[in-house]
Amino acid sequence: MRYTGMMRDSILACNWKMNPGRRHEAETLYQGLVAASKALKASEIWIAPPTPFIDGLRERRIFKRLSLGAQDCSRFTMGAHTGEVSAAMLKEAGAQFVIVGHSERRAMGESDTDVNTKVQYALKARITVLLCVGEKLRDGDGEYLAVIASQVRSALMGVPKSASCRLVIAYEPVWAIGEHAAAPATPEDFRSVSIYIKKVVSEQVGAGAALSVPVLYGGSVSKDNAMGFLDEGHADGLLIGRESLKLSAMKTIIADAEALGRARAQRSRKHERTR
Ligand code: PEP
């Protein structure tokens, strides 16, 4: 994550989930993203392919603004845990970040305690944590805020301030995720919740460090609504599911993020000159 004065790069994180089915398809999609990311100046592409593909793809990771990561890690470090892959093993395979607490993992039984353990082990392995939080339902009384606060507090329990530089949070309201989602959240929904999340994060790591923790939006992001979240919603980036498997859509999202970054940099230079 790069900073230029008050400006920061947009993180465009791609969660490929259990797709694509074949290694050569993953390579083709990846090569397309590599080509699209050659001239990046204001954004970074983070790709979380299925775990078996990470190692092969990292050979081709030639750009600083392109990161590879995993979609989950174990709550154990090693031993008799059939099927589990530790954060340290993922790091060795080439993962630079790991998604933790995704709602699809929580739906399979992952508890808040599991999420906290995974966060701790990933940070210990020096992998950036992309922590997902979000309510299942949006009520009219603001109860959903308590759900989000509790997920953030429990996930970050015991996390030192010094680790905040390896922490990214994605606000992913469960009701907005996936093809059966009623609708994406709005940029205004995101903006208010992201401010709230930073406030809760500050309880753990202090206000200064919390301000530097990027908060992304995730949930039915498309090439048509991405700009709204980045611009009006002031999102520090996006966590993109289905749409991240479509190279042409990703090219549009990348071009939009870059154009916004350039416009903001220009505004900030103008502001500096007139001060
Ligand atoms: C996700 O599950 O992280 C996600 C954002 O999915 P989608 O974009 O497909 O809603």
TrEMBL record:
Q: Where in the cell is it found?
A: Cytoplasm
Any GO molecular function = triose-phosphate isomerase activity
Pathway(s): Carbohydrate biosynthesis; gluconeogenesis; Carbohydrate degradation; glycolysis; D-glyceraldehyde 3-phosphate from glycerone phosphate: step 1/1
**UniProt GO BP:** gluconeogenesis; glyceraldehyde-3-phosphate biosynthetic process; glycerol catabolic process; glycolytic process
Query: Is Isomerase one of the keywords?
Result: yes
Q: What is its main location?
A: cytoplasm
Protein's UniProt keywords contain Zinc: no
| Listed EC numbers | 5.3.1.1
User: What keywords are annotated for this sequence in UniProt?
Assistant: Cytoplasm, Gluconeogenesis, Glycolysis, Isomerase
Annotated membrane-spanning segments are none
| Pfam families xref list | TIM (PF00121)
The record's annotation in PROSITE patterns points to: TIM_2
Reactions it catalyzes: D-glyceraldehyde 3-phosphate = dihydroxyacetone phosphate
Which EC main class describes this enzyme? isomerase
Signal sequence segment = none
> Which GO cellular component terms are attached?
cytosol
PANTHER family linked? TRIOSEPHOSPHATE ISOMERASE
Q: How does it assemble?
A: Homodimer.
What's the family? Answer: Belongs to the triosephosphate isomerase family.
Q: Which protein are we looking at?
A: Triosephosphate isomerase
Q: Which organism is it from?
A: Candidatus Vogelbacteria bacterium RIFOXYD1_FULL_51_18
